[in-house]
Amino acid sequence: MKVLITGATGFVGRKLCKALAGQGHNLIILTRSRKTAQEVIPAPHIAIEWEETKDLNSLAQFEALKGIDAVIHLAGESVGAQRWTPRFKEKLRSSRLRTADSLIQILEKSGNTKPKVMLSASGIGYYGDCGDEVLDESHGPGRDFLAKLSLDWEGKLFNASSIETRKVALRIGIVLGPCGGALEQMISAFSTGVAAVLGNGKQWFSWIHIDDLVSIISEAVQNEAYRGPINACSPHPLTQKEFTRKLAQRLHSWITVSAPGFMLRLMQGEFASSLLSSQRISPKRLLELGFKFEHPRIDEALNDILGQSYSKGFDEYLSQCWIAKPIEEVFDFFSKAKNLETITPPLLHFQILSQSTPEIQKGTLIDYRLRLH
């Protein structure tokens, strides 16, 4: 399929692009920066900047926008990026609603009035604070800022394009994964040895492993049974206190403290209400569709994400990118041992001394020297 994606350079978007490209789909990326997309998206793609779409008649990539089969709208400022000032709340709205409007206009201008499927991210904030109540897709929206934002965001999707287009709104929980997202912020906070329970800790924490989320999106793009709102969360939520305890154990934090609600409100303002709200989400629709979670329980999910590195007292960092060159040219570069010196950070003082064969092949031995400090 030919898939148009917004928000592709984000935490979820990067992983999704790699998965979709691996399944043989052709990716068209709408982005603020083509250079950034080139650097961080680890998959073949055509990147088009939002600014370029203002005049499609002169757009060099106009042909790339023809014949779009699927649209995935992930773009949106992170709700936890900073304190919720009036200005930032407007940024949260515009980054979702205005980009949705722009996306629809781009589809219309390029003649893509009837893509097969349109999928938009939403959030479990749609439901508001509901205490211990189990929430499936039939539950109505809440009344706070995030609930209204999610409702409006979904409205842009369901009111858009042709009635023939299948539409999916994923109400996504807290996404857990390596090298980014909410978990990275938690790990940074817990690294001091102190783990904080937010408020009384009784609020429900509904989460999802990033691999499961990517699988859900991939399936929703291709499976016509996926329609309407769908809760994208693990079938096993837990309280915030229980989650903090499990993560603290995994990170070897030795002190657990409580961050009272009034303190959070002083520090975070209105955003504190989101941190303290309780959403006990049931992925009822996904289970009815037969979706199989790879990481349904938090213990296994944390073990998968954190691996063995944290048990040994060190962190791991992984970065991937796609090199926009023919495979032959790329292979030629990496098959020359001397080029290892070119791509190794200078701080390692990496130097090739010798190799056992003229060209790198199976069994080649390379002698090298490196030096720290």
Short description:
By secondary structure, the chain is of the alpha/beta class.
Can you walk me through this structure?
The structure is a single chain. The protein is 35% helix and 19% strand. By secondary structure, it is of the alpha/beta class. Helix 3 (86-109) runs parallel beside helix 4 and helix 7 (240-250) runs parallel beside helix 11 (298-306). The longest helix has 24 residues, at 86-109. It is globular and about 70 Å long. The mean pLDDT is 88.
SSE-based structural type: alpha/beta
Give the spatial strand order of the biggest sheet: 3-2-1-4-5-7-12
Looking at the structure, what is the overall shape?
A: globular
Q: What gyration radius follows from the Cα positions, in whole Å? A: 23 Å
Query: Given the structure, what is the number of helices?
Result: 13
Tell me roughly what share of residues is in helical segments.
25-40%
Q: What is the string of helix and strand elements?
A: EHEHEEHEEHEEHEEEHEEHEHHEHHHHEE
The CA-CA distance between the termini, in Å, is 50 Å
What is the total tally of β strands?
A: 17
Report the biggest beta sheet as strand number plus sense, adding barrel if it closes: 7 strands, parallel
